[in-house]
Amino acid sequence: MGQKISFELDSIHRLSGSDYEKLSLYEQLLGSHKKNGDYTQLGLDAHQLGRWLFYKEKKWSEAIKITKIAYEAKEKAVPFNPEQLKRSYYNYANFNKSRRNYAIAIRYFRKMLEVKESIFFNGKAYALIGDCYRKLGDLYQAVENQSQAFKYFDPIKDKIFIISNHINIAIAYKNIRNQKSINTAISHLQIADSIIQTIKEPRIHDLYAINNNLGDMYFKKIGVENMHKSIAYFEKALEIAKKMKIDKNLAQINLNLGIIYSKTNSSLAKEYFNRALSYTNTKDAGYLIPKIYMGFGLSSFTEKEYLKAQIYYKKAFENYFSKEIKDVHWLPSKKELTLINDKAVFLELLKRKIQAYLANAEKENDTISYVNVIRTVKTSDELVDSMMNENLSHRSKLLWRSLASQIYIIGLEACYRLNNLEEAFYFMEKNKALLLTLEVIKKKATIPNEVLEKETEIENEIFHLQKLFQKALLTQKDSISEIILAQKNEIQQFKDSLSALYPVYFSSINSPKILPYSELEVEDDKIIIQYTMAETVARVLPDAYGMVISCNHRKLFKLKKIKSLLDKISLLREKLNTPFKTTEDINSYKKIAHQLYIELFPKTIRDEMKNKKITIVADHFLSFVPFDALITDLESGKYMIESNEINYTYSLSFQQENSSILKKADKEFLGVAPVRFSNGLSSLTKSEQEINKANVYYDGSLLVKDQALKETFIQNSNQYKILHLATHADASDSIAPWIAFRKSKLTIDELNTLKNNAELVVLSACNTSLGEIRRGEGVMSLARGFFKSGANTVIPSLWQTNDKATAIITSDFYKNLSQGKSKSEALRIAKLNYLHANVDAEASPYYWAPLILIGDTGILLPESNRLDILNASIILILLLLALYFFISKRNNKSF
After folding, report:
1. Do 856 and 869 fall within a single domain?
2. Which of 367, 425, 826, 859 could form a disulfide with 817 if both were Cys (CB 3.0 to 4.6 A apart)?
3. Which pTM does this prediction carry?
4. In a domain, 465, yes or no
5. Is the domain of 628 the same as that of 665?
6. Range of the domain at 487
7. Over the Cα atoms of the chain, what is R_g?
8. Beta bridge partners of 315
9. pLDDT by residue (tens digit) across 235-281?
10. How far is it, in rounded angstroms, from Cα 74 to Cα 39?
11. Structural element, H or E, at residue 433
12. Residue 535: which of 576, 506, 563 has the closest Cα?
């Protein structure tokens, strides 16, 4: 639909001089339209003027202002023309996108989609929203919106748009940086390639992009065959780039070829880097210069010329910040980091700089290089913090946490070498449960409850929609329903409004306080042992580290032979899946459990651990180890629980924040035992007995059999101090981990929307402390879900529980707890009682060790006990007063 501009506008346009020079004349005309109430003509003329200023004269600020006048006029115009309004929204969004105002662009592309009377350019709007999110670093939002775009493209008329969208969605998947996402990216590029073969005159830029990105994808896959494929695609892309004669493409493909050869043929790699550099004289190719210098640095690193690598990285910095830098060890300030657009690439530059420092330190035994590792890791940490302050989706924040985790691990090696405990503690804490800690801070914020509830609802709805999107991809459905998309838009708008209303709150919750090392206080009878472990980084399995913290002893130690350690953990878990059957079973278990004890607790710290209450801050696969069941002495077969009381926490910073939340529950105990299930799950005949025995010590309500409904639990759970669920669960469900109720399941998404006031949650169900490991954040378990919704302590299970043994242990636990024992001590005594009361197979850790205690370890007396204590105290006081008066009276008589 063409724009019908006014005669007056066309007349001014035909006058000599640029449109910018005639801007005052144009403004008078627009003012006249507004004065006359002619919003239709105002909208049409302003829209066209904005296009002229933007595309022809590159007066971007003025073009954006004029286009705003256009869409505001079209919003008021009568008759209302939806397509004309969407055109102006589109231009306003696109102009802002080109100026890197991505948040504004997203908002107005969405406003296009809200105009339901027309579907004009909806596909392109979704595609461009996705592209904006990709550039903001929110890759999951990028993928979701770009996938939705396919719904609106005509498979015949819109082939060019479809190809472009497949290429862009592939780039987003590539940047998610795991093998699954790489494979998905390759699939999208292959689809684009098959479509482009059906076009008589395909766009040469698309041909280049497909081959260049396929080369990049196969380079990121493991294997020699994939490396050959990568080179073949890059070389094909190079031939296409030569025909295009576009400098930025020639620079990019030579850069890519340089990187692929940088680890095998440094001299050839440098040739490609130099060719790439020769094509960066034009303005549109200049953004590649820092990446090219990163490539030179990588080649120097391969040649073990680490100082030379740092010089190249300095040159990359100079081009990023457009200034001369004299000091090779210079690092950007916090303010300068906020100016970086492609933060993922810049983080990669910092990571390479860190690796060069570390390699030089190891080669030269150079203390200064170790110091520079720590400095650069802290700068990387600041960059990640700035990224976390962006309005990213939950999954994209997890991705950034994963990228940061790789860097913290490298930093720990430098801390270990320098015995720098303070920085090591910071890196360890920053590597765990940060997003969970954010949820705790939200609960403490002084904001109206209805706002917090809505904000929590929003976050969880986003997470739920992302899960639906994953499911849609698995079933090869490219679109999400209009209802879900409408909800998604509403969610984002509300988040934007919350940020505007409560700026202090929304700036603070993204930067949780890490417990300072100097403020660590540990009681005489306690000890903290913190671990940090990572997955494979750059195809190498890094070392893992531990720190012991006690009243008078602090030490950083290193766990070596990590592959062997992981194999032992896997073998231990395998042996814990069933009870012992033979003497050989017992002996083989004790052997592996003792080996793990020796490796996880170096000899230098074992004396410090004796008879102490131990808090384990686990990480990665260590989160699946039942430390209670490790063997401290192979000859006697003594379990660790017999020497130590053990509890767990996600991080000390999280523990501090979580413990500071005031619980407001007014009822004591809510027990849930469906016993039998309507969805085919096996019956749990001892589960009713389990919650009945607990109810003996703690007064409250029981949801048994037909009363054990999910809806009832959701409605009432926030009223109770203790929640005990004796049921089935599955934390490993890839789509939605769940807890079973009588007729339905409570999914992790629903759990995240709950708010509880529980001092204690007992999850007497299978595998409730297991789940997907997210590097840098922890295990995404059902136990974590209860902490997110407000719990102070959670007792989950590490494997499939036996309902009979669990009933005995939990009953004894509540008895001990009601008598004034701490939560941790009460559970330990109950386990020991079970262990010592049984022999042979019945004494297997399979029965007594799956339940662990995470979080606060304090005392939790029943109300009845408190009243008894109070009454006893009053009686004692009265007796003492009576005795006092009796003695006083007798003494008076004697005078």
Report:
1. no
2. 826
3. 0.79
4. yes
5. no
6. 439-492
7. 32
8. none
9. 999 999 999 999 999 999 999 999 999 988 999 999 999 999 999 98
10. 6
11. none
12. 563
